[in-house]
Amino acid sequence: MRALTVPLPSGDTWTRADYEALPEDLPARVSLVHGKLVVNPRPRPIRRRVARRLATRIEDAAPDAWQVDTDVDVLLDDDEVEPVEIAPDIVVYSAEHDVYERPIPAGLVVLVAEVVPPSTKRKEPALYAEAGIRHYWQVETDQTAVHTYELDDATGGYVATGVHHDRIVVNVPFDLDVELKR
Fold first, then answer.
1. Domains, the chain, with CATH or none
2. How many CB atoms lie under 10 A from the CB of residue 116?
3. How far is CA 102 from CA 25, 63, 85, 98, 140, in A?
């Protein structure tokens, strides 16, 4: 087992520069939330499989203006003291973004999806909403359910737009028809 050396932050909190200096091959999943480094274990294989398969189907349906990736950094808040940078399971973002650049600015993201066990209560939806990302999906692994949400401009939070079990058929952010049981 190789030793892991992680650079310490330059001050009391982690900056974006500190975060960007981390090696890409960390054995854990890390996020930057309000200047704090959040470390999570790597996802279970089922989570990666569900994310990969759904991302492929979304990508197949996406117009040329959009690109789809899994587990890529999205810059939700560029605050100098308490930045927020998270890697959602699935990200749909503008084709104008250079795929060699990270992170993806939230202003270029139209949809994020997280794959979770149904008992998990995620904190990210509020962060995605605060960043102005229009669409959020929560995918439950054991029930093959996709809960879809859209940003409500009046409240600044997400409102539920549907629960899809066997098939997801939506027309925002673009037309999509995916059989979920496969």
1. 43-179 (3.90.1570.10)
2. 19
3. 15, 22, 10, 8, 28
Residue 78 has which token pair? 């560029």
Which phi and psi (to 5°) does residue 175 adopt?
-65, 130
pLDDT digits (tens, 9 = 90+) for 13-67: 888 988 988 888 887 888 899 888 888 888 888 889 999 999 999 999 999 999 9
Q: What is the pLDDT of residues 113-139, one digit of tens each?
A: 999 875 666 667 999 999 999 999 999
In whole angstroms, give the CA distance from residue 98 to residue 100: 5
Q: CA–CA separation, 17 vs 154, rounded Å?
A: 34
Q: pTM for the complete prediction? A: 0.88
H-state helical runs in 26-68? 45-61
Give dist(CA 141, CA 167) in Å, integer.
14
Best CA proximity match to 123, nearest among 86, 73, 69, 91 = 86
Between the alpha carbon of residue 180 and those of residues 45, 51, 150, 163, 176, the distances in Å are 18, 12, 20, 12, 12
